[in-house]
Amino acid sequence: MREVTLVIATQNRDKGREIMPHLSGVPVQLRGLWEWEEAPDVEETGDTLAANAILKAESAMHHTGRWAFADDTGLEVDALEGAPGVFSARYAGPGATYASNRVHLLKEMEAVPPAQRTARFRTVIALARPGFPTETMEGAVDGTITETERGTQGFGYDAVFEYPPEGKTFAEMSLPEKNEISHRGRALVALRARLEALLASARAKS
Known about the structure:
Blueprint: E1 4-8, H1 13-19, E2 28-32, H2 49-64, E3 67-77, E4 84-85, H3 98-108, E5 118-128, E6 135-145, E7 161-163, E8 168-169, H4 175-181, H5 183-205
Parallel strand pairs: 1-2, 1-3
Antiparallel strand pairs: 3-4, 3-5, 5-6, 6-7, 7-8
Helix pairs in contact: 4-5
């Protein structure tokens, strides 16, 4: 069986660094879409996390001709009726940055008391393979929104999302600590299991 190349369908190297340890030991050649400078940007027009993940994974698959996977992640805040959700990456508006999104979220939450600051991170991963239907898998983790930013690790909303069992924000955790319990980590466990099953089946047929 020829070695499979698996493309991480993102130009976000922070996300790529977080993902790679989860797939260590899986017999694939793991590459980031950032290695293809001419890869098109994908407009995330889907109205769900799954739809956006599928758009990105299939675009990368068609561009590279390889297996590809993409994730879309949303922060769902109960007091904001599930916002920012699918709009998490651009919650502060066009040109939003990690920092501006966090500032905007904390401002929206200023009047919300501690007991009502519950939230969850949810990640949907889409795996696209030439000639096969695209598959999805999901991971989620519950937490609370802090009143101020805490920690310097991670990215995105990590500094304002506390995981109650540890009493830490994701930004106060090391990458291995975060990977053990994070939404993306849980979705990647499901992806890893699916990849191992697909590769084992392919080896058995070869």
